[in-house]
Write a structure and sequence with these properties.
The complex is a heterodimer of chains A (310) and B (319). Chain A is an alpha/beta fold. Chain A folds into 2 domains: 11-122 and 268-295, Response regulator (Rossmann fold, 3-Layer(aba) Sandwich); 129-264, Rossmann fold. Chain A has helices at residues 2-20, 37-51, 64-76, 92-102, 129-146, 164-177, 195-209, 221-233, 249-257, 268-283; strands at residues 23-29, 53-59, 81-85, 106-109, 124-127, 153-157, 183-184, 215-218, 241-245, 262-264, 291-294, 298-299. In chain A, strand 8 (215-218), helix 8 and strand 9 form a beta-alpha-beta unit. Chain B has one domain: Orthogonal Bundle (ABC transporter involved in vitamin B12 uptake, BtuC), CATH 1.10.3470. In chain B, the strands form 2 sheets. Chain B has a two-stranded antiparallel ribbon with strand order 1-4. Chain B has a two-stranded antiparallel sheet with strand order 2-3. With 319 residues, chain B is an all-alpha fold. Chain B has 14 helices and 4 strands. Classes of the chains: A alpha/beta (310), B mainly alpha (319). The A-B interface holds A 29, 32-33, 56-59, 61-66, 68-70, 72-74, 76-78, 88-91, 93-95, 114, 116, 160-162, 167, 188, 190 and B 35, 37, 40, 42-43, 46, 49-50, 53, 139, 142-148, 231, 234-242, 244-245, 282-283, 286-287, 289, 291-293, 295-296.
């Protein structure tokens, strides 16, 4: 009898929670399974819960056509607001066009949409990716100022070929190091944000360039982990510097141990929270900035307690 | 008593053989009552539109599997076709883009066909190699950047619809009917079944098995290119990473539909059931509020269940 009563109570509570929900939000996440996606989606859920919304997040599998279908199904199912995390810039115009045609409030999250439709997005919550690159560039110059080396040679591991994130970060780095003595030794090496691929690339680069490398730079924490393992196994740890972008736990650990010179912030928790907060304002008919930037900047060992880690 | 037993056996075998259709019908009934919006015309169109693009290649993949072959490179041919279609649309226009993309897809397929039918390379290995090479080519040609197009004809082609049904389902239906016709009604189709059923016996019977092995890859290349064109017309962009799940999707829908990987049996009409089941499941899970990771898990479980049921049905038939 007790069990039946408890079950009924739980059911009533669930129904009540549904009845008092402010509305239903639907999010299609192109990078649902990416390491960065998990904390971002957790923050989206947490903020939606706090603000009294029901939320459903689905995996867009980096497929714009699939995301379009998901949004169509969500609209048919009566969702009140939408969050769009695009996979790549080029495929965004058709989705943006559809989302605007629904008349529902929506925000674009994380990946910047194509230039041709930027103005049509009600609100975009994303990092200034070029600025993240610039910060990496500034850290590179700073590292060489603080650590005297005969040469200023970098081994540079990038994310995914053609992704806006990768392209913009490289653009930012190149802007800053242009005209300096810093040399990127290798041609583009893409590890697809995969630690094991980054490890293989790092091993190859160490085999080819060896002691010529003064500093290793990676575009995220996962790839840093791969590169770190390669440096460790080939006996190069401590003999050269490492800089990366990201707030992964391994980054924190290696910052604290002094093996990583510095990292650049891109906080998935803040980004996810801001996404829902901006959407909430749009639902309520309030004014929002067209582009809400996720804060960025350098993280040193002394700052680790000021940041969230995942 | 024996008569009852035979009757019961027949029913069980029949149920096992048509397990996928049965699961789909039961699932549809559940959805009709639980989420009436699921059967709204807008959502039905959404489901049909969704499975059509990959469905075009799935028809050719089914034919290849009937012929006891498989092609992993369709994903790359698809991606390359989105890129080529957009590039040619930007320079020469829509019609040349479609023609060139289809020809290029068929040439890639013919190369696979040569490797498998003439050089006697295992299809898995040969198409694994061409998959990497074609993908690499797409990256090199585009400098790894996505290619946008604003070609009006391509946009109109992708946006055209009758009562909510877009161009892709219409093209898919046409491709499906052609495949159903030649597989069931022509000597060419019978040759594909015979080659897949028993290669050596077919060869000794005078069937031109090399030709059949070759031609199915040409069909696969052409269909993957056609899928790529349809995709590009929907999103007006082409990029090397697009369609990376195409080969697995096609094989999965073929197997779920009930075509045996051993070759020599099955049909594209069965694959339609597999395609629909996957699209319905995907759409319904979104409507039921199932989270992304759980959706992947459930899709995997359904695939395993169908394969197990298929194995049971085959065992019973043999007995």
């Amino acid at each position: 009898m007790k069990k039946i009563l408890s079950l009924t109570l739980v059911l009533l509570l669930v129904l009540a929670a549904g009845a008092f929900a402010e509305g239903k939000i639907f999010m299609s996440s192109a990078y649902y399974t990416a390491p960065y996606g998990s904390p971002l989606q957790a923050a989206v859920k947490e903020t939606a819960d706090k603000l009294g919304y029901e939320i459903q997040i689905v995996d867009g599998e980096e497929n714009a056509d699939k995301q379009l279908s998901q949004f169509k199904a969500a609209v048919a199912d009566g969702f009140d607001a939408l969050i769009y995390w695009p996979g790549d810039q080029a495929s965004t115009p058709q989705v943006v066009e559809y989302l605007n045609s629904t008349g529902l409030p929506w925000v674009a999250l994380n990946t910047i949409v194509d230039d041709s439709v930027v103005d049509q997005v009600p609100c975009m919550v994303a990092s200034d990716e070029v600025e993240i690159g610039r910060w990496l560039g500034r850290l590179i110059l700073e590292y060489f100022e603080n650590n005297e080396t005969e040469t200023k040679n970098i081994a540079y591991i990038e994310g995914a070929a053609g992704s806006s994130y990768t392209t913009h970060l490289t653009q930012g780095i190149e802007e800053i190091i242009e005209g300096s003595d810093v040399v990127i030794l290798n041609d583009h090496q893409y590890a697809n944000f995969d630690p094991s691929k980054a490890m293989t690339i790092m091993e190859d680069l160490l085999t080819k360039y060896g002691k010529q490398i003064d500093l290793v730079v990676t575009q995220d924490g996962g790839m840093f982990q791969g590169a770190y393992s390669a440096l460790d196994s080939m006996g190069y740890l401590g003999k050269l510097g490492i800089i990366c972008q990201g707030q992964d736990l391994i980054v924190r650990e290696k910052l604290e141990s002094g093996e990583l010179y510095a990292s650049v912030a891109q906080d998935p928790f803040t980004e996810g929270r801001l996404g829902v907060e901006m959407l909430d304002k749009l639902i309520k008919g309030e004014e929002v900035d067209h582009w809400v930037y996720t804060p960025t900047g350098p993280i040193y060992a002394a700052d680790v307690d000021n940041y969230s880690w995942f | 008593m024996k008569g009852h037993s035979i009757g019961r056996d027949r029913i069980i075998t029949l149920l096992l053989e048509n397990a996928v259709s049965l699961i789909m019908v039961l699932f549809l009934i559940f959805m009709v009552f639980y989420k009436p919006v699921f059967v709204s015309w807008a959502n039905i169109c959404n489901i049909i539109n969704e499975c059509a693009i990959y469905g075009i290649t799935a028809c050719a993949m089914t034919t290849a599997i009937i012929c006891a072959e498989v092609d992993l490179s369709v994903s790359s041919t698809f991606a390359w076709s989105t890129v080529l279609c957009c590039m040619v649309c930007n320079s020469l226009g829509f019609a040349p883009a479609v023609i060139l993309t289809l020809i290029c897809g068929a040439i890639f397929g013919a190369f696979n066909g040569l490797l498998v039918a003439c050089v006697h390379m295992p299809a898995f290995v040969a198409t694994l190699g061409t998959m990497t090479a074609i993908k690499g080519l797409a990256y090199v040609v585009t400098d790894a950047q996505p290619i946008n197009t604003t070609n009006e004809a391509l946009k109109a082609f992708g946006a055209f619809e009758i009562a909510g049904i877009g161009t892709a389902p219409m093209v898919f239906l046409a491709v499906l009917l052609v495949f159903m016709w030649f597989l069931k009604k022509t000597r060419f189709g019978r040759g594909i079944y015979a080659t897949g059923g028993n290669y050596e016996v077919s060869r000794m019977s005078g069937i031109n098995v090399v030709f059949y092995k070759f031609i199915i890859f040409v069909l696969l290349g052409g269909c993957a290119a056609l899928s790529g064109i349809m995709y590009a017309s929907r999103i007006m962009a082409g990029w090397a990473p697009y369609g990376s799940d195409l080969a697995l999707y096609c094989v999965a829908s073929t197997v779920i539909g009930g075509t045996s990987m051993a070759g020599g049996s099955g049909g594209v009409h069965k694959t339609v059931v597999g395609l629909l089941l996957m699209a319905i499941m995907f759409n319904a899970m979104t409507m039921l509020g199932v989270e992304g990771s759980m959706q992947k898990f459930i899709r995997g479980i359904v695939l395993i269940t169908v394969i197990v049921l298929d194995a049971f049905a085959n065992q019973r038939q043999k007995r």
